[in-house]
Structures are given as C-alpha cells and as structure tokens.
Amino acid sequence: METMKSARKNDTGDVGSDLSEQIKAATKDNHVRAENTQLMLSYQKGQITLPQYKVLLCSLYEIYKALEEELDRNSSHPTVAPIYFPQELARLESLEQDLEHFFGSDWRKRVIVPAATHRYQQRLRQIGRENPELLVAHAYTRYLGDLSGGQVLGKITQKSLGLSSKEGLSFFQFPGVSSPNRFKQLYRSRMNSIELTEQQREAVLEEAVSAFELNIQVSEKEKRKVYGLDQGCQTSGPRAKTGPQSVKVTEKTLTADCKYVKLS
Ligand code: HEM
C-alpha cells in the first residue's frame, strides 16, 4: 500500500510542555491524512476545478462564520483572549468577497452547505456555548493551516483556475500579517500562555484531533458535491457535469449529503 505523504517537516524531537508543541504532535498523523484527501490531492496535482473551489468556498464560509462569531462572543474569556486576533486573521469578510465574485450579488441565496460542513459548524457553536476553552483547538487548526500550507494552496488556485488578478482569492490573503512565519511564532507563544488545567489541556488536544477530522470530512465530501454548482443547488435535474464523469443528481443524494440554508 502506498504510504501517505506529508509536506510538513519531520518532528523527531521530544514534545515539551508547551501547548503549541503538544498540539502539533497530537495532530501529526491527522495532518498527513488531511493532506491526502481527494480534494487536497487534486490541489497538489494542480487539478482543482472551479466547481470544486466554489463548493470549498461555501464550506469555508460556514466554518469561519461559526468560528469567528464564537471567538467574538468569547473574546474576553481568559482562554480565548490571548489568541484573539480579529484584525490579523478574520476570514469572514474575505470569504464574502470571494463568494460574491464567483456566485454574483445574490450569492447568499446560492450558498450550499454539505452535511459534513453543517456538522463542523454545529460543533463550533456547541463549544462556543459550553466549552470556550476548546476554541483554541479550532482556531489553531484553521488559522495556522491557512498561514502554512494554505499559502501554497492560494497560488495553486490562482494558477489552476487561470485567474488573472487576485479577484476571488481574498481568502488566502492576510494583509494584516506581514510575515506569516513571525506571526505563527507569536500565535504559538500566545497559545502557550493560556492557563489550562491538565484535564482542559487533554480536552484541547482531543478537540484538535476532532478539528482535523471535521476538516477531512469536509474535504472528502467536496469531491462528491461538485455537481450542478453553476445552476446553484438543485433538488432534481439532468446530469450535471463533474469533469470527465457525470453524476445524476437525485433527491436522495441531496438529502443524504447536502443541506441548503438560506443565509440571512
Ligand atoms: C495540500 C494540503 C496541505 C499541505 C501541502 C500542507 C502543508 C503544510 C506545511 C508545509 C506546514 C508547515 C509545517 C511547519 O512549519 O513545520 C503546515 C502546517 C499546518 N497545517 Fe497544513 N497542509 C495541508 C493541509 C492542511 C489542512 C487540510 C489542515 C487543517 C485544516 C492543515 C493544518 C495545518 C496546521 C494547523 C499547521 C500548523 C502546524 C504547526 O506549526 O503547529 N493543513 N501544513
């Protein structure tokens, strides 16, 4: 069986007591799996398509809406305040711009939410209400990922989709971060300053593993959810093209895997 590959450096050193080191070590295997989903493999081969990217943007919008609303709501919580960087990191507005670019001014009516994305969003809402100390696991997984491999994904998206300008690519740009590497160092030191009981620390590490798994599920679903995007969501209809193959869109596939929400 082929071994899964990772672009991350091999960390062979001992894991210290810092949360940033522990979380990286705890999610190492999950990161390898996250890099090897169908969607991420398409990315790495430079084969990302516009329908795939559009579905991904819809999912990212839902995820960041929940994540950033919960971070905002808990911004003065002692376990959130040290890693609360809305000026530098917030992605929601940039995603709105990208969605408008690709879906048009009525994008809110056309956003689709695959079931895996809905589950991810629900988990974020739940911990925002009940266990805000776990939000650091999700903020780490998304924002440090966006500032790491995500920067390469932005370049691949531009090239694969033949985008001539930066239009539709705001998500990958962090105008408030002049050096991603330096910012990641700052972020890690802030994570390390959070005071957690041993039990809470364990729970954060477990939540980070779940956060990767939720992202993996979103990426795995994306591949199957590339149909009919240019017509918006369909409840039935003719065969929609998904590249070399076509998928028959039926009521059943939609109710099983795709949930539509009207975003206010
Ligand atoms: C094609 C897919 C991906 C590639 C090529 C990739 C690559 C990388 C690379 C090169 C780093 C920097 C490692 C370092 O500085 O030591 C990194 C870090 C990271 N990636 Fe990914 N990644 C991918 C997908 C993902 C996904 C899907 C997630 C989760 C949603 C993710 C989350 C992270 C996180 C949280 C870090 C920061 C690790 C740390 O420094 O603690 N990555 N990634």
Automatic annotation (TrEMBL):
Subcellular location: Endoplasmic reticulum
Keyword field contains Oxidoreductase: yes
GO CC, alphabetical: endoplasmic reticulum
Record EC number: 1.14.14.18
Any GO BP: heme oxidation
Keywords associated with the record: Endoplasmic reticulum, Heme, Iron, Metal-binding, Oxidoreductase
Gene3D superfamilies, A to Z: Heme oxygenase-like
Gene Ontology MF: a single term: heme binding
Database matches in PANTHER family: HEME OXYGENASE (PTHR10720), HEME OXYGENASE 1 (PTHR10720:SF1)
Family that this chain belongs to: Belongs to the heme oxygenase family.
Name of the protein in question: heme oxygenase (biliverdin-producing)
